């Protein structure tokens, strides 16, 4: 999470002490081991089985069975595509909005600085609440969006936002962008504070326009933070669950079923634990690749 | 400091942009609050009542007295509170110990542990659910507070460790050395020097682990089957999946109540929260 190179006082460590380190790290490793690592390994094992909770008599070792199923599963590929569409648009829109928010707040006079704290609010609101709130806002009959659009003459009759393919995806994305934009704002604001005043002054003295100042001074300076924040958000949105689950439950007709929702459905609606594990493993591999890139970027000297 | 002169046009543009941003960010929150005080018929009013004409707390009353099956909705608040607070305490203790090791000691596999801390933050939670459910079933942790606290703590820990370590790294190691010369033990350094200086970091970490536990939907949805053991997020889904469906006033009242603790935390601990997120990136 800590994206910026900071002055480290501890470039050296006093002594080597394996035993104390083991004792100190022990509790954390135990927790993470039980809840994350063990299940992860266990799900690799599960993925090799035909394992349906509803049919305990039919549990058997069949390593290729699930893979064959995966390759023929149209819904799986549909969910991949949905995840990609959802994530790319959500992150791109969140980033742009967050950047605009950061820039506008930066320009406002000092006495408005409290505003930044207020604007963070959507980011701390629980996903489940965001989901219900936007389900209400996009509701066909009582939703305020339909009312506003009708009044402005943008639509002729009420749109069933959450019940039509593309509209449902758009609604879910808007709810997520609302929720996440403040996070980008925070990150970009922090990064912009690191730009030396002298550079800005020089740009001004040379008569650089605001537009050019942004692209030639500000953006290059915070590029690292932009890249890392985006990657982090891509990973998080791949795992995004509560908002989509409450707003559409993956519907209508799988239009908003992302991979995470699909895995959940296979595991807890169809109780096909073996197959759910295999799709899960597939995702873990993708996320691990992204994580490695993320860590590489973190280590780079920005 | 030389600043750009602001033309009137620029000021108008800036003002307009600010208003759009404020509206976009705050209107949904305002709308939630407003609807929560409307009676069921007022929700259907056309044009919508921006501020309820006859404000009523009936929605809140329905949440206070409402039940899902035989379980009162208020029970979900109790469950969430217990589980979230326990998670905060355990996560902070475990993270303090671990971050001390990572910030101050040399040891084998140090780099491996650091990478592990980063990577486990990215794990897709949903993948863990199936095996975790089977494991919990075998060791009888389904429907227990212990089971939920264990899951929440493990899930939030990597981030907490990472954050506390970053805070600890900013405390000069000379302090440790001076203390050792004075005869202080290693654990004494943690207790007497680091912990007092780490208070802002501990608060920030506590806030984040609380948010994680309070907001988590997937763990309690799958690891508890007994309604009376559900926390707020799955409890809300159960409440509004059934008899309260389309009770918009009640739903928004519940939403306000679920969001309230988190928003209060934001109001009072904002400084730490922001500082924690961007830890020490600016000031040196």
Automatic annotation (TrEMBL), chain A:
Its main location: membrane. The chain crosses the membrane at residues 20-41, 84-105, 117-138, 167-187, 275-297. One of its GO terms (biological process) is transmembrane transport. It is a multi-pass membrane protein. InterPro entries: MetI-like, MetI-like_sf. The keyword Transmembrane helix applies. Coiled coil: none annotated. Residues 80-294 form the ABC transmembrane type-1 domain. It is found in: Cell membrane. Pfam families: BPD_transp_1. GO terms for cellular component: plasma membrane. Keywords: Cell membrane, Membrane, Transmembrane, Transmembrane helix, Transport. Belongs to the binding-protein-dependent transport system permease family. This is ABC transporter, permease protein. It comes from Leadbettera azotonutricia (strain ATCC BAA-888 / DSM 13862 / ZAS-9) (Treponema azotonutricium).
TrEMBL record, chain B:
Residues 77-269 form the ABC transmembrane type-1 domain. It is a multi-pass membrane protein. It is found in: Cell membrane. The chain crosses the membrane at residues 12-33, 76-102, 114-139, 145-164, 193-211, 248-269. GO terms for cellular component: plasma membrane. GO terms for biological process: transmembrane transport. InterPro entries: BP-dep_ABC_trans_perm, MetI-like, MetI-like_sf. Keywords: Cell membrane, Membrane, Transmembrane, Transmembrane helix, Transport. Belongs to the binding-protein-dependent transport system permease family. PANTHER family: INNER MEMBRANE ABC TRANSPORTER PERMEASE PROTEIN YCJP, MALTOSE TRANSPORT SYSTEM PERMEASE-RELATED. This is Inner membrane ABC transporter permease protein YcjP. It comes from Leadbettera azotonutricia (strain ATCC BAA-888 / DSM 13862 / ZAS-9).
